[in-house]
Amino acid sequence: VHGEKEMELETLHNEIARVQIDQFNTISQCGMLEKKKKEVSLERKDKEDKVNRYEVEIRQRHDINEKKQHEVGRLNKLHDELMSNQSESNREPLEARRNNYKRQTKDLSDKCGMLHRESVSYTHLRAHETGRNLVCRLLLEKKKHQIDH
Description:
It contains 4 helices and no strands. It is mainly alpha-helical.
């Protein structure tokens, strides 16, 4: 009987030791969890600050876009008013001027084409050169050559 009581006492001591070890492990685990909680909280705060900065930036850009859209709307309205106030009589001189420029351009183009058709090459002129003209041309070229040198 006495041996059984000692055995039971030892079993209880072992159980108490295991509970104490579990208690130390739990305390250690709680400390690690508290440390991790602080790290996560700091990280969350940093990310919330970043989100807040982004939201402010988005609102600022949104305000800028609204101002630009308002300005575009104002300019479109002004353009529409100017176009509706501009009568046909105001447009006719511009149209007449444009048509006049077109006509002048066509006339000049026609003249250039005619001059191009009427022009004769130097080689063609020399082919029809008479003897007298040849002598005159050669004398002129010789005189020019003497003047140049």
